[in-house]
Write a structure and sequence with these properties.
Helix content: 55-70%
Distance between the termini: 33 Å
Organism: Ceratopteris richardii
GO biological process, one term: protein targeting to mitochondrion
Number of helices: 8
Domain Metaxin glutathione S-transferase: 70-131
Oligomer: single chain
InterPro entries: Glutathione-S-Trfase_C_sf, Metaxin_GST, Mito_Protein_Transport_Metaxin
Structural class: mainly alpha
Largest sheet: none
Protein name: Metaxin glutathione S-transferase domain-containing protein
Shape: elongated
Radius of gyration: 26 Å
């Protein structure tokens, strides 16, 4: 239930255009431009295909997922009650899955989040997440890290040796110049290929949507 309803709704919100900056920062902030943009478009297209989102059914699918997510939170709140964990006196995989989901919903700066609004309606779920965070995550984070048993030997600096300056000939300079341009051309071709692939994939999806509209 958590995976099928809450996770699908989270994918819809995270890869929505309103939260494009959040998704790009989480997944692609370490990549250079335009590679980060191309991979973001590719992943967004994959997630929309996974959720079955198209131009003509976005509102209907979104309303259906919101309704199922609301029912899932209500069921989990009723099932939890005032217990410390969902299933027994010790944490289980269900606790781990829901805790990771709820912490992301509560901490991530999502815009117009239906999940965040519905989660805050259930005070026992919010208290449950906050208590587990203090008991397990904050306590573990404040504990000192275990020191490694293996210690690297200290390096003894080697005595400096005087090396005569190397005189570069015109042939060596030209070879290095050509190699730099070759690497730059290869990098540019890879980026252009990825960009063209991403644009073509988006156009294919749009053509499929137009065909479906014509058929209707």
């Amino acid at each position: 239930m958590i995976w099928s309803h809450l996770h699908s709704m989270l994918l819809c919100e995270l890869w929505d255009l309103d939260n494009s900056r959040v998704a790009q920062h989480i997944y692609f902030s370490s990549l250079p431009w335009p590679l980060n943009k191309i991979l973001y478009w590719k992943q967004q297209l994959n997630n929309w295909n996974y959720l079955g989102l198209k131009k003509g059914n976005i509102e209907q699918v979104n309303e259906k997922m919101e309704r199922k997510a609301t029912e899932a939170y209500a069921s989990l709140s009723t099932f939890l009650g005032d217990k410390k964990f969902f299933l027994s006196a010790r944490p289980s995989s269900l606790d781990a899955v829901f805790l990771s989901h709820a912490l992301f919903i509560m901490k991530a700066p999502l815009e117009n989040s239906h999940l965040k609004e519905e989660l805050n309606r259930h005070s026992n779920l919010v208290s449950y997440v906050e208590n587990l965070q203090r008991e397990f995550l904050d306590a573990q984070g404040s504990a000192p890290l275990a020191k490694s048993i293996y210690k690297r030997p200290k390096r003894v600096p080697a005595p400096l040796r005087h090396r005569p300056p190397v005189q570069r000939t015109e042939k060596v300079k030209n070879a290095k110049w050509r190699s730099k341009w070759f690497l730059a051309a290869q990098a540019a071709s890879v980026i252009l290929a990825l960009y063209a692939w991403g644009i073509s994939a988006i156009e294919i999806v749009e053509e499929d949507d137009e065909d479906s509209f014509d058929a209707d």
